[in-house]
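Annex B. Sample input.
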Amino acid sequence: MIGRQHRRGIAIMLAYLTLLAIYVGSGTLSPLDETAFVLAVLLPIFGSLIYVLTLFLPLEADVASPDSGYPSHMRVLPIRTMELALWPMFYGTLSISLLWVGIAALILEPLGMSHKLIIWPGAMLAALLACLQALSWFPLGVPYLRVILALLVLPVVLIAGINGYASGLPAATLTWSFLLAIPFAFGIAYAGIARARRGETFPWAGFTPSASAKKETLRRSLPSAFPAFHPPRPFASPAQAQLWMEWRRNGWNLPLAVGMTCLLLSLPFFLDLGVGDRGLEPAPSWLPDDFSSLRVSFMYRIPLVALILPVVYAWIVGCGLRKSDTRRKDLTLNPFLTVRPISTAALVGIKLRMAAWSALTAWSILLLFEAGWLFALPARSEAGEGSLLDLLVSHATLRNAATAGALLLFLLFLTWRNQVENLGVDFTGRPWIVNGYPLVMALLISLALYFTPMYLVQPSLFSDFLRSLPRWAALALAIKLGLAGWAAAALWRRGLLEGKTLAFSMGAWLLAAVTLIGGGLRLLPEGGVSFHSLMLGALLFLPLARLSLAPLALAWNRHR
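Annex B, continued. Sample output.
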């Protein structure tokens, strides 16, 4: 079933890795002389490993729910519980371990990685997947406990393997240690699925029905200063309840994806990938002159490239699943959502707020990893040696700090924008729109990548393109503003949006445009971009038309 549903993604992944292995085998690529090593090799490899990990985890499940994440439609199948737990874990651990062995033997070892890292990291990834499956399938009975345990298990497994290898443990010992952990994870997964099929949860003290009388007695005997023993407050409004549900269901998707990728990107700091002999190299030329004397490790590219992770993942994840029953091929809205006593505009606003909190959480996780990476990277300057983080802080000026802060705010906004820009497309519920829009965008991106080198190598064509670009941008802006105006008029006419809400939205959009244009004029070099081009770019960048169409699409989909 997994192979049938994800056959295109698996085929693309295997095709890229095969071409990469052939290219590496030809001897023309080496991390010692190619600055694109991280983009061309490490990120696709880590992305492939994460992709295979997610294939065997129930992503449609509520990770914060106290119930089991094992698909409910599979629990009722006339199959023994042993088989329900065995085959997904067997195929998952086998796939992830074989994928790593193939990548390590055919790509990383020819690039200088030690041959000792071919086998045991595959066993470590298999044990990691088995532990995550066990956590996901076991009904823990406490909300958010699964998220906390997952964030603890991931680094523990990775650090155990890395420290064991660094301390000189034989590869065979590490391999068998991780392989022996898989049966224990299988036992937990089997017990969890068995309890889930019976409708049971883990019997935590104080949470079982038999302890309810004791809990009530204890609550009455304690003063009111202990709010943990009082019943939870009801939601003040249906909108708050809907926001709570949206966060529980979709809010953790982006932060967890970023966190898992950051954990995998941390491996090269501990594993010998053949780049340690390179030593320190000059800092990138695009850094300010204050950092001209800085020399840094080659591995600075990992924290640099990781800055695009939330932006890219936000475009893929969006605002989460459109419906809870993801096995059905129709894209109609879940009836649970359509009958909520919430206005259409409020539902769209809740999605926007959830995306904002999700983007903020993802960037908080990434910045924690960035601080750790920069602290672990060695660097040297005229002032002395130390970690890259210490030298960056010591060389930074107020202007550099303000520029970095403005860039982070821009990336945070871009992450939120990528999450919400396709809400109008998703809310239509039309397969030809929902599935056709990504194909059209992929075609346009492919055409841009195809024609860009042609324009760059022919100066006449490139100059003609630059001269005509403002006219095309002005035409695109006119179409965008026209669609937004039509959508605003339709929202007002149908009573889907109040006048003050519409005025506030337009004011916020204009404020964001002014801020973006002012920041560009302040930070970009003088004479690099004209005010007219910067204004056109900022107005085209800010989401407007598709967000304005989202309430119309949702209203139509709720009543069809």
